[in-house]
Amino acid sequence: MDVLTLLKNDHKTVSGLLGQIKKCEPGDGRLAGLAEEIESALTVHAAIEEKYFYPRLHDRSNEPDDLVDVFEAYTEHELIKKLISLLKSGRQPDEQFKAELQVLAENVQHHVKEEESTIFALARETLDAEELKELGAEMEAAKNRLMSRSSRAPKRKTAAKKPSKKQASSRARGRFKR
Predict the structure, then answer these.
(1) Which architecture, in CATH terms, is 3-175?
(2) Is the pLDDT of residue 177 over 70?
(3) Exposed, middle or buried, 34 (CB in 10 Å: 0-12/13-18/19+)?
(4) pTM
């Protein structure tokens, strides 16, 4: 499978997961599970792009505008990683959690749209068909290694439904202010 097909398939998978978020209401128990799946898929996807795909494009780019496009892709990945870190809090899938997932979804959708047009066009210009296939095979193998590693990693615990004593105390003080 060539690299562009591999990446498009990843984009479709993540897009499907992100689409499920819209169907969930705040407090829906499915949100935490979706967040974990999205986090895992995006983390692996970004890792292989950053290790194999973007450096190859950077090395082959001769035009300043092409280099800007590659650096923009890296920058968008950094923003997505920061948004993913918000989801790792282990808190309840409340309104704020859903909002953070929605912002993540919007950023991922923007990145995918740009990548599939600008970055894929650059790849087609700078890499021949054989290189696209070789890079795809290399990235697929790396993806499989990372996915098997992440599936063996212990899952993090989600927060209990009951508020902590500190949260309960804080709420009580807010209601009984003098």
Answers:
(1) Up-down Bundle (1.20)
(2) no
(3) buried
(4) 0.80
